[in-house]
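During the reporting period the student researcher (J.K.) took over the structure-prediction task from the postdoctoral fellow and processed the backlog of single-chain submissions. One of the processed entries is reproduced below for the supervisory committee.
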Amino acid sequence: MDDRGFTLLELLVAGAIGVLVLLGIGGYYVSTLRFYDQSGSQSFLQRQASLAIEEMARQIRPATALTRGACNADPNALQVTNSLGVFCFYRNGSQLSEDRPGGTANLLSGSPVPLTVTSFTSLLTPASSGATRATISFQLSDNVQNSMTFQTDLSRRN
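J.K. obtained the following structure tokens:
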């Protein structure tokens, strides 16, 4: 047994191995954080889109009339007439707006991060049952450049 301790070469090799292990752990940690942020952002976009779609569905299902392009000088706007009044869904700059009796609301308000709508389209298709089906598509983006496109078909239920 040698009582001299470690040689310089042994210390350098051990230090290099330690640095490589720490770099690997650090890289794994950073990539895990990025993945977590990305999945959280996508979940948030999906939640906000679900809330907007639910509001549209709440007005479209009891509708007596659906008209495309009849409000806010927007050819993609969707006007909904039901027993509660006239509602209009459209893109207003970077907002998803709803004109309703009593004023205009941004369907994306209340979100903890700024959301923008980069596109909004509506399409009306007569269904075989005689009811008109509205196909709505919009794209949401957050402040970290994550974006998702959402599309839904909603029909009147009267």
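The committee noted the following: Residues 8-60 form the longest helix (53 residues).
J.K. will present the remaining backlog at the next meeting.
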